[in-house]
Design a protein that fits this description.
The complex is a heterodimer. Chain A is mostly beta strands. Among the domains of chain A are: about 110 residues, no CATH class; about 130 residues, no CATH class. Chain A contains two helices and 24 strands. In chain A, strand 5 and strand 6 form a beta hairpin. Chain A is globular and about 50 Å long. By secondary structure, chain B is mainly beta. Chain B has six helices and 24 strands. In chain B, strand 13 and strand 14 form a beta hairpin. Classes of the chains: A mainly beta, B mainly beta. The interface between A and B is large, with 76 and 86 residues.
Chain lengths: ~350, ~350
């Protein structure tokens, strides 16, 4: 019995050590800082569109905090700018993620707006103190995203192709990556096992969706969120062309062509930027912010049983509510069990970080 | 004595008060600190802190180095041209230094819009805007409008995404028409209709105030006109192309315009290095081998990701009828190969 316990303990220690063991100290050659997602052990994943890579950083930020301290910071662009020595107009905040262990807030930032912009990751603690996650000597790993189809790269000069990484998430030991190319219009969702292995750049899945039973099309995934429905892992994904679909995680296998089940269409002007799942009064909801044009709340209690949209009469699918109290929300993440963090563009143009109760 | 030009007192505006004058007289002359090549430089050995000149700005991170006669503080990140920084020396009033502006450079221009044809299908998927110099991110949405022939703006014609689809040099922007308004049977198309209506004339208006990567506006605004034509829902079929080898080149007539970014990248002659140029509103590709042709047979290879203006790919239309059709598409779609002879 004791031996079994020891073996089990040994095994769990070994597996716990494996994740961070793959991270090596050194300078991280991050070329741009885009979408963020936290994995276990305070590991922060960063999408690098310019470098066509995903980075994993050991933030060393593992102290567990159950309840977050509300943070409200006005003029965040100016504050981050002062930290890195530029005026507010030279700061672009690309994403926001909350470390689920410590509840510290991480932002990916561009210092500058041109092609020579410098990527910066900043951390904001519960007291509102802003510090930089320095990348000169940090435990990290990275995986290159596969190259796009190229016929004669050598002959045709420098490629203009770039794939914008539009979202990242950690689910079931894999980093899920959605991207949107500036040339071909294709739908690829990539699932990359972590720890990264250079030979395995992950399964690339082409996703189709139906519209009213007549057409099946593919489209890039804009944003997505892993979610459990009746004990099974799913991805809820929003396309650039507005349908919201669910896909079983188990379908994300290399080279697969997957048909997502369309459960809602979000309509014109609603382009999801971020989605978070939360519980309130025993029910699950999704909160999503949409291209600065409103925040929507969707009940998810019937997602498992929601009929697929296959006929014209089903056009609305899962009902959603647009929450008028939230305006100009550019970034959104869950802060703790009862609160969300929003990065809001005020009418005056300043960028404000706000803590709000989950609606 | 006169202080160097760049040194400014951070005092209230107006003439210095008597107290200030007295203090200034009692103290030794303030240290001379200047800006040069990314660093703040003091004469002699001196300890000082540098911060952005704005309320509550923290001291910047950086390295302080001493030479035989200078102290040089180099901030962790290069100072911003045109910005003002505050230098704090213990026991001295702060000194403000404005970093020189960038050397003036010619303003950027919009050099091309693709597709270049004057008639585009109503289900046109992408526009490419080419600029002469790197541009600023996070501006496109408010700098581009699409006008109908009656002068009204088309509401939300393009997909608005934070990332903005620039090339690595920030000189080419890909603008995607909202796919929800192109694809048949989707809610946005039913609610507000397609962005383009066949037979209507449109003007793409580019605002002159769009800043380049260095904050300078464009040399001028641009109006680019086109007419919407019938939808194109036919897949690209390389087997219908006309191949004409000439003494120096290979001319490939597509019979329709193809995507200006993809065609040069995804069409090649196997084992023959050469240059490609799109001509005649992207309906023709001219391939010029580096070495003159030798008589013989050659293979033209077309990658399946090649698209026409409406996003129809090789052997796959933009919207596919029925999922059964999709599942029959092979996992690894092979490239199309066409053999041609040079005599």
């Amino acid at each position: 019995m004791k031996l079994t316990t020891a073996i089990l303990l040994g095994a769990s220690l070994a597996s716990a050590a494996t994740l961070s063991d793959s991270l090596q100290s050194g300078k991280a050659a991050l070329q741009s800082a885009g979408p963020l997602a936290f994995g276990p052990e305070g590991i922060l994943f960063v999408g690098d569109t310019k470098g066509a890579a995903i980075f994993a950083f050991d933030t060393g930020d593992q102290k567990t905090t159950k309840s977050a301290t509300p943070v409200d910071l006005q003029g965040l662009g100016g504050k981050i700018g002062a930290l890195v020595g530029v005026t507010a107009d030279q700061i672009l905040v690309n994403d926001l993620a909350v470390n689920p262990l410590s509840k510290n807030i991480y932002l990916s930032v561009s210092r500058g707006k041109g092609p020579e912009a410098i990527p910066v990751i900043v951390k904001i603690d519960g007291a509102g103190k802003i510090t930089e996650l320095k990348l000169e000597n940090i435990r990290h790993a990275s995986v290159a995203l596969p190259n796009a189809p190229a016929a004669d790269a050598m002959e045709r000069g420098r490629s203009k192709r770039q794939e914008a990484i539009t979202d990242l998430a950690w689910a079931d030991g894999r980093v899920l990556v959605a991207g949107l190319s500036n040339e071909e219009f294709s739908s690829n969702l990539r699932a990359i096992p972590f720890p990264f292995r250079s030979a395995d750049q992950g399964a690339s899945v082409e996703i189709f969706h139906g519209a009213h039973g007549r057409f099946e099309t593919n489209s890039p995934v804009r944003t997505f969120v892993p979610y459990q429905i009746a004990g099974e892992s799913y991805v809820l994904a929003a396309y650039t062309c507005t349908p919201l679909v669910k896909l079983p995680m188990s379908s994300l296998k290399s080279g697969a062509k997957v048909k997502g089940t369309t459960i809602a269409e979000l309509g014109n002007g609603n382009r999801p930027l971020d989605m978070v799942v939360y519980q309130k009064e025993g029910k699950d909801f999704i909160l999503m912010n949409n291209s600065s044009r409103g925040v929507m709340k969707l009940p998810t209690n019937n997602l498992g049983s929601a009929p697929a949209i296959t006929a014209k009469t089903d056009i609305t699918g899962v009902p959603y509510e647009t929450l008028a109290q939230f305006k100009g929300v550019e970034q959104l993440d869950r802060y703790d069990a009862g609160r969300a963090l929003m990065l809001v563009r005020s009418d005056a143009g300043s960028l404000d970080l706000k803590t709000v109760a989950l609606p | 004595m006169r202080f160097p030009k760049l040194n400014l007192w951070d005092g209230p505006p107006g003439p210095p008060s008597l107290v200030l004058v007295l203090v200034a007289t009692l103290l030794a002359a303030p240290p001379a600190i200047t800006y040069r090549d990314g660093g703040f430089i003091a004469t002699g050995k001196l300890s000082f802190a540098v911060s952005l000149h704005q309320p509550d700005a923290p001291a910047l991170d950086g390295t302080l180095a001493h030479t035989s006669n200078e102290t040089i503080f180099t901030p962790r990140y290069p100072p911003q041209p045109g910005a003002t920084y505050r230098i704090d020396v213990t026991g001295q009033p702060p000194i403000l230094i404005r970093v020189p502006d960038r050397a003036p450079r010619p303003p950027a221009t919009l050099t091309a819009v693709y597709p270049s044809a004057s008639v585009l299908p109503e289900n046109q998927l992408k526009l490419y805007l080419h600029f002469s110099a790197p541009m600023s991110r996070s501006e496109a949405v408010r700098r581009i409008r699409l006008l109908r022939q009656n002068g009204e703006s088309v509401s939300l014609p393009f997909l608005e995404i934070d990332e903005e689809l620039w090339d690595p040099d920030a000189r080419r922007l890909t603008l995607l028409f909202d796919p929800g308004r192109i694809k048949r049977g989707l809610l946005p198309r039913q609610e507000v209709g397609a962005a383009l209506i066949p037979g209507e004339r449109y003007t793409l208006v580019i605002d002159a105030a769009w800043p380049d990567a260095y904050g300078q506006p464009l040399a001028q605004g641009i109006r680019h006109e086109f007419t919407a034509g019938p939808a194109d829902r036919t897949p690209v079929n390389p087997r219908t192309w006309r191949l004409t080898p000439t003494a120096k080149d290979l001319l490939i007539d597509f019979g329709e315009p193809l995507d200006s970014a993809l065609a040069p990248r995804l069409i090649r002659v196997l084992d023959v290095p050469g240059q490609v140029v799109l001509e005649q509103n992207e309906t023709r590709l001219r391939f010029t081998p580096h070495q003159p042709w030798k008589p013989g047979t050659y293979t033209l290879e077309v990658h399946p990701a090649l698209e026409d203006l409406a996003g129809n790919r090789v052997n796959r239309p933009f919207d596919v009828d029925r999922f059964d059709r999709v599942t029959t598409i092979q996992d690894r779609e092979p490239p199309t190969q066409i053999v041609f002879t040079v005599r």
